[in-house]
Specification:
71% helix
Length: 99
Protein backbone atom coordinates (compact mmCIF):
# COMPACT_ATOMS: atom_id res chain seq x y z
CA UNK A 1 0.00 0.00 0.00
CA UNK A 2 2.01 2.81 -1.23
CA UNK A 3 0.77 6.31 -1.24
CA UNK A 4 2.28 7.00 -4.59
CA UNK A 5 4.76 9.41 -3.19
CA UNK A 6 8.36 8.88 -4.29
CA UNK A 7 10.60 7.35 -1.68
CA UNK A 8 12.97 9.93 -0.28
CA UNK A 9 16.62 9.09 -0.48
CA UNK A 10 18.92 10.71 1.93
CA UNK A 11 21.73 12.59 0.35
CA UNK A 12 23.82 11.89 3.45
CA UNK A 13 24.18 8.20 2.50
CA UNK A 14 25.72 9.03 -0.84
CA UNK A 15 28.15 11.46 0.79
CA UNK A 16 29.03 8.82 3.45
CA UNK A 17 30.13 6.26 0.84
CA UNK A 18 33.47 7.93 0.31
CA UNK A 19 34.42 8.30 4.02
CA UNK A 20 33.29 4.71 4.68
CA UNK A 21 35.50 3.46 1.89
CA UNK A 22 38.33 5.66 3.11
CA UNK A 23 38.02 4.38 6.69
CA UNK A 24 37.83 0.79 5.44
CA UNK A 25 41.11 1.32 3.60
CA UNK A 26 42.67 2.81 6.74
CA UNK A 27 41.36 -0.11 8.77
CA UNK A 28 42.84 -2.61 6.30
CA UNK A 29 46.18 -0.81 6.45
CA UNK A 30 46.09 -0.86 10.25
CA UNK A 31 45.41 -4.61 10.23
CA UNK A 32 48.16 -5.13 7.66
CA UNK A 33 50.66 -3.20 9.82
CA UNK A 34 49.58 -5.21 12.85
CA UNK A 35 50.07 -8.47 10.99
CA UNK A 36 53.52 -7.38 9.81
CA UNK A 37 54.53 -6.41 13.36
CA UNK A 38 53.22 -9.71 14.71
CA UNK A 39 55.12 -11.60 11.99
CA UNK A 40 58.35 -9.79 12.91
CA UNK A 41 57.85 -10.61 16.60
CA UNK A 42 57.25 -14.26 15.73
CA UNK A 43 60.44 -14.39 13.64
CA UNK A 44 62.45 -12.80 16.46
CA UNK A 45 61.01 -15.29 18.94
CA UNK A 46 61.82 -18.17 16.59
CA UNK A 47 65.44 -16.98 16.26
CA UNK A 48 65.72 -16.75 20.02
CA UNK A 49 64.29 -20.25 20.43
CA UNK A 50 66.71 -21.63 17.85
CA UNK A 51 69.64 -20.08 19.75
CA UNK A 52 68.39 -21.64 22.99
CA UNK A 53 68.04 -25.06 21.37
CA UNK A 54 71.57 -24.76 19.94
CA UNK A 55 72.95 -23.87 23.39
CA UNK A 56 71.01 -26.72 24.99
CA UNK A 57 72.46 -29.23 22.53
CA UNK A 58 75.94 -27.83 23.06
CA UNK A 59 75.64 -28.14 26.86
CA UNK A 60 74.28 -31.70 26.53
CA UNK A 61 77.24 -32.61 24.34
CA UNK A 62 79.66 -31.06 26.85
CA UNK A 63 77.99 -33.03 29.67
CA UNK A 64 78.32 -36.31 27.76
CA UNK A 65 81.96 -35.55 26.96
CA UNK A 66 82.68 -34.77 30.61
CA UNK A 67 81.01 -37.99 31.77
CA UNK A 68 83.09 -40.01 29.27
CA UNK A 69 86.27 -38.25 30.40
CA UNK A 70 85.53 -38.96 34.06
CA UNK A 71 84.87 -42.64 33.34
CA UNK A 72 88.07 -42.89 31.29
CA UNK A 73 90.08 -41.24 34.08
CA UNK A 74 88.58 -43.58 36.68
CA UNK A 75 89.44 -46.63 34.59
CA UNK A 76 92.97 -45.33 34.03
CA UNK A 77 93.53 -44.66 37.75
CA UNK A 78 92.15 -48.10 38.60
CA UNK A 79 94.48 -49.72 36.08
CA UNK A 80 97.47 -47.97 37.74
CA UNK A 81 96.35 -49.23 41.14
CA UNK A 82 95.83 -45.72 42.49
CA UNK A 83 93.78 -45.54 45.69
CA UNK A 84 91.77 -42.54 44.58
CA UNK A 85 88.50 -44.05 45.80
CA UNK A 86 89.67 -44.09 49.43
CA UNK A 87 91.51 -40.76 49.32
CA UNK A 88 90.31 -37.87 51.46
CA UNK A 89 88.10 -35.27 49.87
CA UNK A 90 90.19 -32.14 49.14
CA UNK A 91 87.37 -30.00 50.52
CA UNK A 92 87.72 -31.76 53.89
CA UNK A 93 91.47 -31.23 54.14
CA UNK A 94 92.32 -28.13 56.18
CA UNK A 95 95.36 -26.08 55.35
CA UNK A 96 98.16 -25.87 57.89
CA UNK A 97 97.78 -22.94 60.25
CA UNK A 98 94.08 -22.51 59.49
CA UNK A 99 92.00 -23.91 62.31
Amino acid sequence: MTSGKPVKTHSSTSSNDKPLQHTATNLNEAYRRGVVLLHEKCKALQRSNERLVFRLHRVQKMSRTRARDVEMLQRKLDSFGDCWRTAMDPADVKEEGAE
